[in-house]
Amino acid sequence: MEDSYVGCYRNVYPTKTKPSVYNVLECVEFCIGETSNMIALIYGKKCSCIDRLDSAVASYRCDIPCSNNDTCGGGRVYSVYKGKPRIMHDAFFGTDNIQQATVVNNLPHFYYLEMCAHICLELNLSFFQTMKDNKCTCLDAYSYLVPRRTKTILCSTTCNSDKTEICACHFKGLDTLPVIFSTRFQYDFQRGKSIYSHCKEKFSESFLPCPPSGCQDGWKGGACIERDCSRNNGDCGHEMKCVEVVINSYEYVECVCPYGTVRNKWNLCEVYRENIAILKPSNMSSVFQSAYNRTSYGANYINDNVYDGFTYSKIADNKNGWISVDLTMLYSVGFVRVYNKICESEAECRALEKFIIRLNKSFEPFKGDFSSFLDTCGHGPSQVLQGGNPMVVICENFALRSRYVIIQQSDTSTDFGKLAVAELEVYEVGCDILNGRCKKSQKCMDIVEQFTNVVRCREWDSVRNISKPFYGCFEKVDAEYEHDEYGLSYEACKKVCNLNKFILSVMKAGIKCSCGNNVRVYDQLSKELCRSGDFQSNLVFYTCFTDRRGFCNDVSNDLETTVAISSHTNSSRTDVKLIVIGALSGSIFVMSAIFAVVSTMRKKKRDEEDEKNKNEESETEDVKVDVISMDTISVDNVSQLGDSQYD
């Protein structure tokens, strides 16, 4: 099971489900006949065979076990496993010519096609193509071409080193043509181990020892394929943090987005959103029909969740044409993603140059130019992308409430061809996008109204400057210095600030370190939000104790609340009850301080009794010590307990 675990995900696309299974193996057996090789479990029992996945989260979020204690998802997240070798791959199309590669990797003798997909996905490249001469070639884009494709993709060429693995696919009837595959939608892998060697000097080989110069920062092992969280944040970049986790008794390493966000298909962190356009009613001004193969390119293709660019919606109009999606209720639209068709020429691509996204509460199209009656979300780029890579348009006005999303050509692009779109995705507004279009000085608030998201701009409730030792969690912090190394521990962040002669340290979302002698803080938050690493949280601290999970706890509060003593004296006994929070690192120091207090109190009591009762035998005193773990009580709760609770 160690090699089968992939990760924890917010979103999967099931092809078949089973309401309840006993363990992971039972789910694997249920999906054994599916073409995909991944399974997903949720709620500790529900099994799904899946062909797509996205929106990865930290594995600790998958915290509900199956009946045999296997990790089987969470409340709204799925544990994903690889159940078997993959027998079907995400082929886009065939092409007459091998495409020029962005990256070429020499594969080991035991290579297989899925290994190439993982290499290209790890490099954050969108495509790979048929392997040749043991080489994996990754593409960021491909040239203008005539896509060659039939209805049936055959993945029947097995690998010489392992007959259960696939090494090549082709479209039926096009056996000799190279194939372009997509990496973004059907593939993912456990990110703690790489498929290729991360050597300092060069990138070209998989699983081969690196030269004496060693590994790139963030990698370790002889072949430099193991992620190392102790160096350079495990090469997880500036948005994610390298963490070590234990799943099903096996240790893994992950690159984790801050709490409240997910890792998307482009290896970026974002707030999770659902595509509100998928499979909603669609319409278009006219339908293009090919004279060559009598194929119609209707409106249903624009939001069918297929991105390959081979199937698409296309109009027949020369002017004022449009394609629309009815969201069926009013939404505040934040941004859209538009996927192009596969362009055979530059001119064909330019038909989408500076395309226009329009919005409205109602839509009753008529002949002529009706654009003046619609609101404008925004315009597409002047450099149009080929099929398979999205073009993103962020709406100009987040306050608009719209039911219809309409795409049109710009006035200049109609000269290059007719409007054609492979896929249109629509997403709601949020404060994580450009601060919700609020002013830089304002606070953005996410609000749910009539079951949809809206944003509201308001002034901050509290703004103040801090220039002395302090501890607190805030929604926003302006600091004087931002450190350029990410994923530091709280102790390491403090060292950075000390070296740069700053008294205050700031950790944003548990990943980004800043420093200052005079920091401005906005609206205080619960310390638990900072503890969780919430993407909107900022912890300001002067010094602290780190707990077993590495969180920075307030030293002054912890010392004050770690020892709570109440003394009740009578002629024969003194009871001293101590509450020890054992989860604090440095607890040996705390325990030592506690017992020093106990010894001092004992000596003082004995001296008083000896003075009072010189000729009498001293009575025995009892000291009672209660040790309470963090599972029973938190540091925050200790300071709030009444005296009666110590008795």
Number of strands: 42
Q: Tell me, what's the shape?
A: globular
Number of domains: 5
Which structural category do the helix and sheet elements fall into?
mainly beta
- Measured distance between first and last alpha carbons: 51 Å
Give the percentage of residues in beta strands: 25-35%
**DSSP summary: helix tally:** 8
Largest sheet: 7 strands, antiparallel
Q: Residue ranges: pLDDT <50 for 5 or more in a row?
A: 558-603, 613-647
What is the CATH topology descriptor of the largest domain? Answer: Jelly Rolls
Q: Please identify which CATH superfamily of the largest domain we are dealing with.
A: Galactose-binding domain-like
CATH domain class of the largest domain: Mainly Beta
CATH architecture title of the largest domain: Sandwich
List the defining traits of the structure above:
647 residues; mainly beta; Jelly Rolls; 5 domains; seven-stranded antiparallel sheet
What do these coordinates show?
- With 647 residues, this protein is mainly beta.
- The chain folds into five domains: 5-86 and 243-264, no CATH class; 91-182, no CATH class; 282-428, Jelly Rolls (Sandwich); 467-542, 3-Layer(bba) Sandwich (Hepatocyte Growth Factor), CATH 3.50.4; 560-646.
- Helices cover 12% and strands 33% of the residues.
- The chain has eight helices and 42 strands.
- A seven-stranded antiparallel beta sheet has the order 30-35-31-36-33-34-32. A five-stranded antiparallel beta sheet has the order 5-11-7-8-6, with helices on one face.
- The two termini are 51 Å apart.
Secondary structure topology:
Layout (H helix, E strand, L loop, with lengths): L4 E14 L5 H7 L7 E5 L3 E12 L20 E5 L8 E4 L8 E4 L6 H10 L4 E3 L5 E5 L13 E6 L7 E6 L7 E4 L36 E2 L5 E2 L13 E7 L2 E7 L5 E2 L5 E2 L11 E3 L28 E2 L8 E9 L1 E7 L6 H5 L5 E5 L14 E5 L10 E5 L7 E7 L11 E2 L1 E6 L14 E7 L2 E7 L4 E4 L4 E8 L2 E6 L3 H10 L4 E5 L3 E5 L2 E6 L2 H6 L5 E4 L2 E3 L5 E3 H8 L4 E3 L4 E3 L2 E3 L5 H26 L13 E3 L6 H4 L9
Parallel strand pairs: 41-42
Antiparallel strand pairs: 1-3, 1-4, 2-3, 2-4, 5-11, 6-8, 7-8, 7-11, 9-10, 12-13, 14-15, 16-17, 18-20, 19-26, 20-25, 21-24, 21-27, 22-23, 22-25, 28-29, 30-35, 31-35, 31-36, 32-34, 33-34, 33-36, 37-38, 39-40
